[in-house]
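Notes from hallway chat w/ T.B., transcribed later so I don't forget. T.B. wanted the structure written out for a chain they're using in a teaching module, and asked if we could keep both sequence and C-alpha cells in one place. Agreed to drop them here.
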Amino acid sequence: MDQTLPDDAAANQSAWTPNGRPEPSQRRSAQSLTRMVKAARAVMLARKSEDFTLQEVSARGKVSIGSIYHRFESKDGLVRAVLLAELEKLDTTERGMVDRLMATCPSLDTYVPAYVAGFAEILRDNAVMIGLAMRRSGTDARMSSLGNRRASDSAHVATAALLHFAHEIEGDAAAKAATVFRMIFATVSRRVILDRDDSPECDDWESFVGELSWMSLIYLKSARPGGGAP
C-alpha cells in the first residue's frame, strides 16, 4: 500500500533521513518550494506562456495547493518567482561565459566573435523565458524593475570585458563598447525572441552570428568618417 502523504500532510509528520535522524523541516520546506518552481517552469516552457493552473503545478510538482498558497499569495507570485530564478541563472551563465573568454582570448579579433556567438546562444537557449519576462515587465512594475536591473548588469559585464581591449578600439572606447552591446542585444533579441523561428533546419544561424560579429569588430576598430566622436 502506498503510504506517501500529500506535501502539507507530510509536513506534520516526523520525517527521517536514511541514517535515522529527523530531517529538518526547513529542508523539506525548501524541497517543496523547489518542486513548485520547477513544475511551474516546466509548464511555462511547454506552453511558451503563463497559461497554466495551480492544479497543474500541484500535480506535476507533487505539492498540495495549500502548500503553494502558503508560499505565494497568487499565481502571479509563482510566475514572478520562476522568472526571477531564470534572470539570476542568466546572470550566472553570462558571467561564466565572459570569464572563460577573457582567459582564452588574447585580442579583440578573437574575443568579439567568441562573445557574440556565446551571448547569442545564451539568448537563443533561453528565448522563451526571456520573452515571458519582457512581456510581464509591461504590466508588472516589480518584474520591470528586476528586468531593468538584469539588463544593466549584463551591459556592465559586457562593456567592462570589451574595455580590456581598449587599446585596440578606435576612438571613445567606453562609448563604443556600450553601443556594441546594445546593438548585439537588440539584434539577437529581435531574432530569437520577437521573430522567433521554431524551424532550426531552415535557420542560417551561423551566418547571422558571423555577420553580427564582423559588424561589431568593424565598428570598434574603425575611425569615424571626418574624425568625429565617438
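Follow-up for T.B.: The two ends are 74 Å apart (CA to CA). Might be a good example for the class.
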